[in-house]
Amino acid sequence: MDLSFSEEQNMLQESVSRLVRDHYSFQRRQQRLEDGEDLWLRFAELGWLAVPFGEDQGGIGGGAVDVGIVMEGIGRALAVEPYLPHMLASQLLARLAPEPLRDRYLSPALSGDCRLALAFIEAGGRYCPWFCATAASESSDGYQINGAKDLVPGGQSADAYLVIARSHGDTRDRQGLSLFLVEREHPGLQVRRLRTNDAAGAVQLTFENLQLDAGARLGDADQVWPELEHTLDLGAVYQAWEAVGAMAALSEVTLDYLKTRKQFGRPLGANQALQHRMVDLFIAVEEARSSALCAALAMDTDDADERRRNVSLSKIAVDRCARLVGQEAVQLHGAMGVTDELSVGHYFKRLTAIIASFGDSEWHARRIHRLDTASLSSSSQPARSQSWN
Amino acid sequence: MELSLSPQQREFAEQVREFVGARLPRDIADKVRRDQHLDREDHMRWQRILGEQGWHAFTWPEQHGGPGWSIVQRYLFEVICAEMNCPIIQPFGPRMAGPVIYTFGTDQQKQRFLPGIRDSTVWWCQGYSEPQAGSDLASLATWAEDKGDHYLVSGQKIWTSYAHYADWMFCLVRTSKTERPQTGISFLLIDMRSPGVEVQPILMLEGTHSFNTVFLENVKVPKENLIGEQDNGWTYAKFLLEHERVDNAAIGVTKAAMRRLKEIAASEHGDDGGTLMEDPLFHRKLVEVESQLQSLEVTALRILSQVAAGEAPGPAASLLKIRGTEIAQRISELASQAVGYFALPYQPDYLHDAGSETPVGPDHAATAANNYLWRRCMSIYGGSNEIQRGIIAKRMLEM
After folding, report:
1. Which of A286, A289, A297 sits opposite B3 (nearest CB)?
2. Looking at the domain that runs over A117-218, which CATH code has it been given?
3. Which of A71, B76, B279, B329 has the fewest Cβ atoms within 10 angstroms?
4. A-B Cβ pairs (cutoff 8 Å, strict)
5. Superfamily for B124-232?
């Protein structure tokens, strides 16, 4: 049991902080958004795109905590680079792609030359992660794809998409899901750019008789659900660290505001009513940090139910903190908090998007409900703490 | 970075489990499991067993006769003890008086007082709060008149936990009147059998007696019972309060309470048939608090690893106190809600002794409701949660 960062993790954190400090002031972020520029190649140079991959794949052999360290910086900076979607897609690629596909896409993905995104969201399924109407019907030389992925976060700049499609069964079956790589320029693919409230951006993909050869499939046909579930858990974990970074920064600017803004001849922060609210905000950041850490460590376990429970508990806890910190930071800033001018509103919008992504608290509570009620019928639960066995 | 245990830590955990399994008296474990009230003898019996093993003063370093455990070992010990239904080790001796005596006391004081704390032959109580000095502790007024080789102490202490069980009291008294209330306070050890000490019970809303008023009237306290320097007692008191707040997070006990709540939910009937655990509305509340407990446990471990690295817990201890007590209160509230109408009966005999009365409704109902009422005190004792928020605002956020 050891909760301190390793030397490598300290170095990674230092490199992340330096980039955020030197290149990611709020003003420069806003300018970058306007100019449509980003620091993707800089991310690649710093090795961030290679963090969770084995050394044999050109990576640095990190885990969820290491990606989390980068994500925390991204949250703090309100960075616009689609790091999270790219990491989820490239990790799936590394794990599941047949050799020719992996050879072709993985090293460009790690070097920053090829951006990937994961297409898994469709209208009509809410957060049900196996809901999928997009059809992949087998044809003589491969597959034909029809349907739509209505929201692909971070998909605007992607060169290729990893697309979940149904090769078997009904729209709400867990079985029968397959995964395909589709290049942006592939005939039959329509890409519609979407703006999002948090400025992260997304696309809608429409597939019309899109032909793929069998080599474009990643993993086994019909069997991709467990891998997708694992990937979505990883997404929730990465996002939790991003939320921590955003909350920490938001808490700092709010504290600063309370100390400097004067009314009735004294700083706002001299009022006990506001002090105690600020303390609750501060506590929420620390709690979210602990939950994010716990979830990242749970990704290492081989026990899928333990992973599910910890990730879901973490998502619920982080959502609660993110809602509190986001809403309170706006309120404590008064009218300035609801303008477009300050970073506060932008952090709030990003936190709101995070709360709505990778399953809301109720989806995660239902997942835990399934675990808790499944164990009712089996023998009584073990008394020992799960994490210590 | 990992949460799982090293082979040595696992071996240690096994050793603790084995010892507790072999030596914890069955009747005591049953009382704890049912959330019943323990009396002095129950506590002392278990604490003496721990004392024989050298584990009663489990946080002490070896040089003072403790086991010299690491922070992680102590944490494991507490969590495993709670998990196996051991009574909480009463903190007043081993966690409060002991560390102050071995940190600030004379050799003679150490020889005289530490063995009784280690072996749990002596029960200590804490003479801090006064009628006019609750959250504002530094304004205490109990006066100790310097009489050369002794003090003559007069005043009134209140909320003194288990003073009616105690052999000794460590006590804050005023030895000089200064402008700043924090200076002029001294730290005295008072024999509860001294003439002039009178203990009066304060009955609590849930019907228990653990708190007291202690009247001190011209109590003669020899100078050799002064800890450290005269007028410097606030320093020692603060040292102790910070430690108390870390303890007040009581993660092990709260984890055990969470497990118990889930057992209750799995055995109680829901309104629509099935178990309460299957009721999605009740379960949603249960998961909410479980998610907060997950955060709290990791937060405590993060703070403990800072302490292990030599940093004082400081104001972070206030964070643990606030959230630890809020979460424990919420768990007890849900357990009480779980039993429905059977939160209404008051069955005091059952609360003390399962054999004495067959409770109406399920066994766990009689204690669940009482426990909820009792736990309202958690956010008030040890410096109310509002005081803790004030400490964080001032010392961490510098507001």
Report:
1. A297
2. 2.40.110.10
3. B329
4. 142
5. Butyryl-CoA Dehydrogenase, subunit A, domain 2 (2.40.110.10)
Domain at B248-396: CATH code: 1.20.140.10
Q: Is the pLDDT of residue A383 over 50?
A: no
Please give the torsion angle defined by the CA atoms of residues A57, A61, A65 and A70, in that order, rounded to the nearest 10 degrees. Answer: -60
Selection from A207, A117, A208, A125 nearest residue A174 by Cα = A125
Domain ranges of chain B: 7-89, 124-232, 248-396
User: What burial letters (b/e) apply to B321-360, b meaning 16+ CB within 10 Å?
Assistant: bbbbbbbbbbbbbbbbbbbbebbeeebeebbbebeeeebe
The reply to whether B11 belongs to the active site is no
Name the H helices within A261-356. 272-298, 304-332, 343-355
Q: Are A234 and A299 in contact (CB under 8 A)?
A: yes
How close does chain A come to B377, measured CA to CA in Å? Answer: 20
- What are B194-230's pLDDT values in tens digits? 999 999 999 999 988 999 999 999 999 999 999 999 9
- pLDDT tens digit sequence for B239-259: 887 766 666 568 999 999 999
Gyration radius of chain A's alpha carbons: 22
Catalytic one among B78, B130, B206, B244? B244
Q: How far is B164 from chain A (nearest CA, A)?
A: 35
Beta carbons within 8 Å of B271's beta carbon, 6+ residues apart: B279
Residue ranges matching CATH 2.40.110.10 in chain A: 117-218
Query: CA-to-CA distance for B386 and B390, rounded, in angstroms?
Result: 6
Per CATH, the homologous superfamily of domain A7-81 is: Acyl-CoA dehydrogenase/oxidase, N-terminal domain (1.10.540.10)
Instruction: Check: CB of residue B257 under 8 Å from CB of residue B324.
Output: no
If one looks up domain A225-377 in CATH, what number appears?
A: 1.20.140.10
Pairing of strands A262-263, B150-158: unpaired
Mutation pick from A3, A323, A377 vs chain B, by most beta carbons of B within 10 Å, is A3
